[in-house]
Amino acid sequence: ETDFRLSTDITPTTAIPTYVVHGDKLTLKVASINDTLKEIPPKYIDMFKHGEVENLGFHIRTLVQFLIVYSPFKNYKNLCFIDTPGYNPAGSISVEDRQITVKYLEEADIILWLIGLAENGTIPKSDIDFLREIDLDNKKLFVVLNKADLRDISDIEKIIKTVKQELNKN
Fold first, then answer.
1. pLDDT tens-digit series, residues 125-157
2. Which of 50, 124, 133, 160 is most buried, taking the most CB atoms under 10 A from its CB?
3. Is 29 left (phi over 0), alpha (psi -120 to 50) or beta?
4. Residue 127 zone, left/alpha/beta (φ > 0; ψ -120 to 50; rest)
């Protein structure tokens, strides 16, 4: 399973915070609310997507705190990535998702903030407002323009310039 990937979608996907760390082999562990770790087959990662957990008939967060994906990425042995539920300016993600995301961002040393170029021509005001809620002192913020392959190169150059201006202004 070397082609393993976290769930992705244009709609909110991550329901449970997921750590991605170096491991000798691809492994998925579930951390319960009573601090026990249980290994499950990596193919079940999609069970923890928003759409799937909503169909369970119970609130999964009453049982699961977070997931840990161990991956044999050798060049990044000392890094820990955290995929959070995010915040949603459109309101389709719960207040709880937002609170969990704030908690994890405040604990992070570096924040990789993704902006989908298919949907945006700049950093949305809602992103800037949300980032202002986070204590960014002593943190590095990297803004990543995602889905660049869906835009013309001339559009990308304009978007980069606009994003830089918006970030500097705010």
1. 889 998 888 888 889 999 998 888 888 888 888
2. 50
3. beta
4. alpha
Among 17, 126, 7, 34, CA closest to 80: 17
Cβ(144)–Cβ(115) below 8 Å: yes
SS3 23: coil
On whether the CB atoms of residues 151 and 121 are closer than 8 A, the answer is: no
Pairwise CA distance, residues 137 & 122, whole Å: 24
Radius of gyration of the chain (CA): 17
pTM across the whole model:
0.77
Amino acid at 114: L
Rounded (10°) CA dihedral 121, 125, 126, 128: 110
Looking at residue 62, what DSSP letter applies? G
